[in-house]
């Protein structure tokens, strides 16, 4: 089996090649590509491999852009440190992914799934392409950039860049802006989670959705939780990362 690795971090490439060799030494890595542009050029002039390992974030953009530039016919296993929203998208569309740091067992399971689903099956490959196109459509969506909120007898346009966090208090949703002002909005946190860029905003618990750019400190807290401090110093109560979201939050912060 011939595979291509699309990854811009050399240590990650070295580790993945080593793991591939350990799991199945019959697999041949025929190319290691480090950018969207380099990958697009390679796929134009070379035959399609059997499988591609592809990181999502490359030096010159998202790897999804490769599929918009050229036709890629091989199945893809994404290697990623992406956040929980992306993970849900992959699961819904049945696209394999490996969460960094990649383990040997996870790699072996992903390869086994690839063999059982896609290898030597044109119909399965077409199904993969359909699912991949659905995934691309999700990531090409435009995220909300501002809110038009009522303040007294006036309306104010608030950019998401100005929002430190969104929070729920007494069943109402509020914006806390960089000036520490609380502004009521009609959207629920569930709705906001779908409207906002998951690269910038994270739902830490049922009551708080925080902006990465306003996180100043993260403190280890009781019960295997984390406590988030915002840069503006003022926040409406303790912002605690729920236990079940701690790992996803760490990945989100560590991109």
From TrEMBL:
4-aspartylphosphate: residues bearing it: 55
Record flagged with keyword Phosphoprotein: yes
Domain Response regulatory stretches: 2-115
Full protein name: LytTR family two component transcriptional regulator
Positions of the HTH LytTR-type domain: 147-255
Alphabetized InterPro entries for the sequence: CheY-like_superfamily (IPR011006), LytR-like (IPR046947), LytTR_DNA-bd_dom (IPR007492), Sig_transdc_resp-reg_receiver (IPR001789)
Lineage: superkingdom: Bacteria
Pfam families hit by this protein: LytTR (PF04397), Response_reg (PF00072)
Stretches that traverse the bilayer: none
């Amino acid at each position: 089996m011939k595979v291509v690795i699309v990854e811009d971090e050399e240590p990650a490439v070295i580790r993945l090649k080593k793991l591939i060799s350990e799991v199945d030494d019959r697999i041949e890595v025929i190319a290691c590509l480090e950018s969207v542009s380099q990958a697009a050029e390679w796929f134009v002039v070379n035959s399609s491999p059997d499988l591609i390992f592809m990181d999502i974030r490359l030096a010159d953009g998202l790897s999804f852009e490769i599929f918009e530039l050229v036709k890629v016919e091989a199945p893809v296993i994404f290697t990623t440190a992406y956040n929980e929203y992306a993970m849900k998208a992959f699961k819904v569309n049945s696209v394999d992914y490996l969460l960094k740091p990649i383990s040997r067992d996870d790699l072996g399971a992903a390869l086994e799934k690839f063999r059982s689903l896609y290898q030597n099956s044109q119909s399965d490959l077409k199904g993969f392409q359909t699912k991949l196109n659905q995934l691309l459509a999700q990531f090409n969506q435009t995220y909300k950039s501002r809110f038009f909120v009522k303040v007294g007898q006036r309306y104010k346009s608030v950019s998401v860049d100005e929002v430190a966090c969104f929070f729920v208090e007494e069943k109402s949703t509020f914006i806390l802006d960089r000036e520490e002002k609380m502004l009521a909005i009609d959207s629920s946190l569930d709705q906001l989670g779908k409207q906002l860029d998951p690269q910038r905003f994270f739902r830490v618990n049922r009551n708080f959705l925080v902006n990465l750019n306003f996180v100043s400190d993260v403190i280890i807290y009781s019960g295997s939780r984390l406590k988030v401090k915002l840069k503006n110093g003022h926040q409406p109560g303790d912002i605690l990362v729920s236990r079940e979201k701690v790992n996803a939050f760490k990945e989100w912060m560590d991109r």
